[in-house]
Amino acid sequence: MTGTDDGTKAGTRGPARASGPRVPAPWVRTRLRAAPAAALALALLVALTAALAAAFPRAVDRYEDAGLRRTLDDASPRRTTVQFFAPRPDLELSLGEGENALREAALRKGYDAVLAAVDKPLVADRAQSSYGVRTSDPTDASDSFLARPSGLPPRVALVAQNALGAHSRAASGRLPRATDPVTATTSEVEAAVTTETARTLHIKVGSVIHVPGLERAPLAVRITGIVAPREPDGAYWMSTPLIREPSLIQLPSDGGTYWIGALLLAPDAGPVLLGTPGKPERYWQVAPDTSGPTAHDVSGLASAVAALESGPGLARIRERVDPLTDATTDLDEVLSSFTELRSGIAPLVAVAAFGAGTVAAVVVLMASGLAAERRRGELALVRARGGSLPGVLGRLLAETAVVAVPAGALGLGAALLAVPHARLSSAVAAALAVTVLACVALPVRAAFAHRAVRVHGGREDIASVRPSRRRTVAELTVLVLATAAVAALRRGGTDDAGSSGGSGDQLVALAPVLVGVIAALVLVRLYPFPLRRLAGPAGRLRGVVAPLSLARAGRTSASTALPLLALLTALTTAAFGGSVLAGVHTARDHAALLATGADGRIEATHALPTALPGRIRDTRGVREAVPVSVAYRAQARRGSGTAGETAALVGVEPGPYGQLSRELDLGGFPARTLRATGPGRGSGSGKAVVPAIASPSLADRFGTAPFSVQLEDDSKVTVRIAAVRDVTPAVTDLDFLVVDREALTRRAARPTALLLTGGHLDGAALRRAAGGGVDVRLRAEVRTAYVHSPLQSGAERIYTAAVAAGAGYAVLALLLALVRAAPERSALLARLRTMGLTRAQGRRLLVLESLPQALLAAVGGALTGWAAIRLLAPGLDLTAIAVAGRPAPGGTARLRTDALSLLVPSLAVLVVATGVALAQAWWTGRRGSVRELRAGDGR
After folding, report:
1. Which pLDDT belongs to residue 616?
2. What does the DSSP assignment read for 136-162?
3. DSSP codes of every residue in 117-139
4. What was the pLDDT predicted at 29?
5. What b/e sequence results for 112-121 when a residue is b if at least 16 CB atoms lie within 10 Å of its CB, and e otherwise?
6. What is the rounded average pLDDT for all residues in the chain?
7. How buried is 878 (Cβ within 10 angstroms: 0-12 exposed, 13-18 middle, 19+ buried)?
């Protein structure tokens, strides 16, 4: 018995011992092989999301860096250069010591000390920086051959600047030299002048210019060469523009004019300036390197500039160079203008970023929810057979990380290649956040679903599940945050938020998203009630499709909050973003319209030629040309002894001008308002009372009683205000009076401007037809000029991309929601077809079942977007992104509701939901009922 048993056991176990111990298959490899399509879909989602998340901060860095470079390049070197200057050496020094202090070697030593005091991130452009000595008070040059526009002698400044030969080429002659040591008593020195100075002041090679001496004979300056700057717009020449070209000065007393120019001495000829009355001073000019700084260096740049102007840097320079050294620059103001523009644009971009980021995060969570739902039975079985919760979660984290981590790295690499030359840290942080979210979403979802061991669960549809206390507390917390954000934005606006910094700014930028979140939570709470109300009446209808679809919609999973949240957030962000972009374009159009008064404007300081209106009307693209005469310095007064008020008097033809005003919505009026009657019309005597349209301030001052207006040609007209308008096409940002041209003298009534209308005006053709001496401005050109900074164009592109990405993720969220219910729907259709349901009825069933949630999202999204715009519009200022701080009429640009931005995304949701339902019905019909109803299917 025993032997038989032993033999039996030996025979049974022999093969097992021969093959070695049994090794279980690895979990991760098994899961990836079991569901390769799901792993690939997750990898694509993570890679795409990580790429977009990493590209966003780099794209922002790119356009901000470009905006900073444009700001620095637009500012003249005279503003951006940091200039240090010190007076002549201490009078207590001997004459020889004072002369040595003005020689190039001493100035070079001071230059090195100045450069050593420059702190990073401010970097000096050594090629354009300069130093030397100059006379701060130009002196008269009485030589007769020099130009004298009004008989006054020109004045010249003596400048001994380093590296003159490296920054210029000789147009004629040679560069000045200082062969012998130059002193304060030297009687003659050599100098050069630029080509512009030579042409303007009538200077030639060999000319000798005499400069008054200080307790000595006049200094003779012999011109040995005329030089042309190699980089005339560089900081070397433009930090002190006088050395490049002379300046014409007008005396305020009698209107006389005279020239001021510069004579360029040899770099070692500085000591001779001590013998002149021109108050010599030493100077060191540090030109910043504008190619290196980035936008995130602006605060450091401002600190470095402040240190050089009045901080530790200046203290070090005074210690090493001269205690009386002082500094001046406008670079801090240039940086401040950039900071103000960026702070006005950044909050608007943050709104789009938070919206798109929220939708993307919800989609990632929905993907993990779909995986958790698909594996609910598997995980429940593992837990029921003794699997520990930490062990299950660890394996889920491992299998997700194997897919998500390489995908996140791939997305980061794609972002780095697509958007080069920007900061790496923010991109890595964004991609890492996406990867971590994708890795932990499934384990966390499984932890909540399987923390208790159970095999079967109850119903989880929205009509049966009641919200828990924990959910109620969370929803109330989000409601408080949303209310605080909206209140902060309405009270302070994005400008205050952008300048204050901190978490409050992020809360304000998150306000539209929070409004969408609140709407989603409210709609999810209210969704079951109409379904319950409609269930009874629908059951009494003929046919099975309507009541069955309503019953199916009522049994939708309670987790519908996530897709609804994604859709509402995306729709709110799209409506908000579309309204922002529409508001920006509208603000630019309106500002350009106010600046030109029409589609185009031709204006001169004198009367236009009589034949010009006809030539302009014949130009291609011009529909109408309305002539007006504008006297910008007319004096309006009541009585001869009262002070006059300057106003623009506009003489018009009431019919065409009134029609133009109505078409452009710029203070339109009927022609009869300006019809002048009575004797003395056009005489200039001011006896006849002429009706006029006035600006509000003039109407407040003069009322409806007649008053006199004196024009620039001394003619007068008596007007009575007949109507008040805030704006008029002919004048911008000035008080105005609009009268009938027939009431003016023939001279005053001659047109000085033409207001043009037309769809496609040709600027080149108009300028050719107008000829010289007139200013031609087109509304389209003015509008284009408002988009000057890359900050504006870059922010608009980022905003558009963020809204588009949010919309794409919203569609993906809708697809995921429908895919989640697809197996159950397919099985239902297959069962119903075995009971006689036709294919057409099946299509209607799926469409009607998906419509309630889609309709809820569409209507809720449109209403939420409208509410968000209405709530947040008072605190949003679009002026910065619209006109970038450039002079523009029209006041502050505010956010307004854009109907297309509200309706188009909502209709798209309905179209997509209907299309997916029809596609699913068609696909299920092709597969057939037998496959869907195979034995053992647990769906």
Report:
1. 85
2. SS-EE---TTS--TTSPPPEEEEEEET
3. TPPTT--B-TTT-EEEEEESS-E
4. 74
5. ebbbebbbeb
6. 81
7. buried
In 20-35, alpha helices (H): 27-34
Decide: 687 and 616 in contact? Cβ < 8 Å. no
E strand segments, 195-321 = 208-211, 219-229, 247-250, 257-265, 280-286
User: Residue 707's pLDDT band (boundaries 50, 70, 90)?
Assistant: confident
Q: What is the CA radius of gyration of the chain?
A: 40
> What pLDDT score was predicted for residue 490?
66
How do strand 155-161 and strand 130-135 relate by DSSP bridges?
antiparallel
Of 802, 916, 657, 891, nearest to 353 (Cα)?
802
User: Residue 431: CA atoms inside 13 Å, Cβ hemisphere, count?
Assistant: 26
User: What's the pLDDT score for residue 923?
Assistant: 72
Rounded CA separation 345/354 (Å): 15
pLDDT per position as a tens digit, 249-294: 888 766 678 999 999 999 999 899 988 888 899 999 999 988 888 8
DSSP string for residues in 812-832? HHHHHHHHHHHHHHHHHHHHH
**Predicted confidence (pLDDT) per residue in 147-160, tens digit:** 988 888 999 999 99
10 Å CB burial of residue 918 (0-12, 13-18, 19+) is middle
The confidence score (pLDDT) of residue 559 equals 52
| Mean pLDDT score, 468-486 | 76
C-alpha 791/C-alpha 341 separation (Å) is: 8
Coil, strand or helix at 567: helix
Provide the 3-class DSSP secondary structure of residue 253.
coil
Structure confidence at residue 7 as a pLDDT band (50, 70, 90): very low
Q: Single out the residue of 729, 727, 726, 725 nearest to residue 777, CA to CA.
A: 729
pLDDT score, position 890? 58
Among 794, 896, 787, 877, residue whose Cα is nearest residue 347: 877
| CA 261 to chain centroid | 42
Q: Who wins on pLDDT, 490 or 855?
A: 855
Do 570 and 359 contact (CB within 8 A), yes or no? yes
How far apart CA 761 and CA 47 sit, in angstroms, is 48
Q: What is the largest CA-CA distance in the chain?
A: 146
Query: What whole-number distance in Å separates Cα of residue 602 and Cα of residue 23?
Result: 90
DSSP-assigned letter for residue 729: T
By the 10 Å C-beta count (0-12 exposed, 13-18 middle, 19+ buried), 266 is classed as buried
More confident residue, 51 or 537: 51
Question: Which DSSP letter does residue 723 get?
Answer: E
**Residues 6 or more apart whose Cβ sits within 8 Å of residue 527:** 462, 560, 852, 856
Q: Encoding tokens for residue 481? A: 């945050």
Mean pLDDT of all residues in 482-506: 59
pLDDT at position 260 is 93
The whole-number pLDDT of residue 10 equals 42
pLDDT for 833 equals: 73
**CB of 277 closer than 8 Å to CB of 296:** no
Q: Determine the length of the chain.
A: 939
Band of pLDDT at residue 6, cut at 50, 70 and 90: very low
pLDDT digits (tens, 9 = 90+) for 610-619: 888 888 888 8
| Residue range 840-884, pLDDT digits in tens | 777 777 777 777 777 877 888 888 888 888 877 776 777 777 776
Angle CA 694–658–766, to nearest 5: 110
- Which whole-number Å values give the CA distances from 269 to 101, 163, 197, in the listed order? 12, 13, 20
Of 756, 781, 759, the C-alpha closest to 608 is 756
The closest alpha carbon to 334, from 82, 75, 120, belongs to 75
- How many whole angstroms separate alpha carbon 827 and alpha carbon 889? 65
